Amino acid sequence: MANTVIAQGITIEGELTSDEEVVIQGTLRGKLVSKDAVNVESGAVVEADIAASSLSVGGQITGNVTASDRVDLMPGGRLIGDVKASRLTIADGASFKGNVDMDV
Amino acid sequence: MARASSTSHGQMAILGKGAHLRGRIAGDGDLRVEGVISGDVALKGHLTVESGAEIVADVEARSVIVDGAIEGDIAAIESVAIRAGARVSGAIRGSSISIEEGANVSGRIDADFELPPELGGKTSR
Fold first, then answer.
1. Closest approach of chain A CAs to the CA of B117, in angstroms?
2. Among B50, B58, B68, B49, which residue's Cα sits nearest to residue B26?
3. Which has the closest alpha carbon to B44: B17, B24, B64, B58?
4. Category of A103 on φ-ψ map: left (φ > 0), alpha (ψ -120 to 50) or beta
5. A4, A7, A10 member nearest B19 (Cβ)
6. Interface of chain B against chain A, CB under 8 Å?
7. Which residues of chain B are within 8 Å of residue A15 when distances are taken between CB atoms?
8. A chain contacts of residue B47, beta-carbon cutoff 8 Å
């Protein structure tokens, strides 16, 4: 319940670590490490490397992402950077530039 | 006990329990802190520091409610409320400041108010 929400209009510069789910609607520059899911929602701008259990991208990310479970690029989502995850989906309408490592 | 509930500007941002931020956080909206921040906080909205939360840096907001710990200066345009059980070390500045019994505060307190002329001295002469 008590998870972390970086709301629209909020800017974080630095390193954010969390044991719980993180939802980003605003801006994050730096680094993000979460033991739970990370949800970058539409309108969010992230310039950071992200490590999480799972990652859903509806906004814009510039940085390398690592997920222990899965990465989902949603329609309208934009990811520039390398993906390391055992499962990856890219929806119709998503943009992606980078390398994929599915750890086979 | 007036709680900054109605958020006229945007959705409430939350730094949850188990979250740790090393860096700066700034923005227009409100922020509720349940985790740990080591880095400056500058908000145009209301800041609530919940019990168990900790901020080690200077804090700037429209109004501030502290139930947790702040190690650094607090500057508010409106009110600063230090609740019982809170721990604050640093200068506190605001247009109105309240400290509940049981709170632990060390530092300067700077509340803007008009001194009556007999105490202010300078204006009457």
1. 43
2. B58
3. B64
4. left
5. A4
6. 9-29, 31, 34-35, 39
7. 21-23
8. none
Domain-wise residue ranges, chain B: 13-120
Instruction: Name the nearest CA neighbour of B21 among B56, B68, B59.
Output: B56
* Count: domains in chain A: 1
Q: What is the distance between the alpha carbons of residues A26 and A103, in angstroms, rounded to a whole number?
A: 31
- Output B117 or A60, whichever has higher pLDDT: A60
Domain ranges, residue A54: 4-101
CB neighbours of B89 closer than 8 A, spacing ≥ 6? B70, B71, B72, B105, B106, B107
Which of A2, A3, A10 is nearest residue B27 as measured by Cβ atoms? A10
pLDDT tens-place string over residues B25-48: 999 999 999 999 999 999 999 999
| CB A90 within 8 Å of CB A71 | no
Picking from A49, A35, A38, the residue whose alpha carbon sits closest to that of residue A6 is A38
- Chain segment B53-62, per-residue pLDDT in tens: 999 999 999 9
Q: Which residues contact A89 (CB under 8 A, 6 or more apart)?
A: A70, A71, A72, A73
Look at A26 and B13 and tell me if their CB atoms are within 8 Å: yes
Query: DSSP assignment, residue B120?
Result: H
CB pairs under 8 A between A and B: 83
Residue located via tokens 């999480």: A52
With tokens 């991208």, the residue in question is A57
ipTM greater than 0.85, yes or no? Answer: yes
Q: Reduce the DSSP state of residue B26 to 3 states and report it.
A: strand
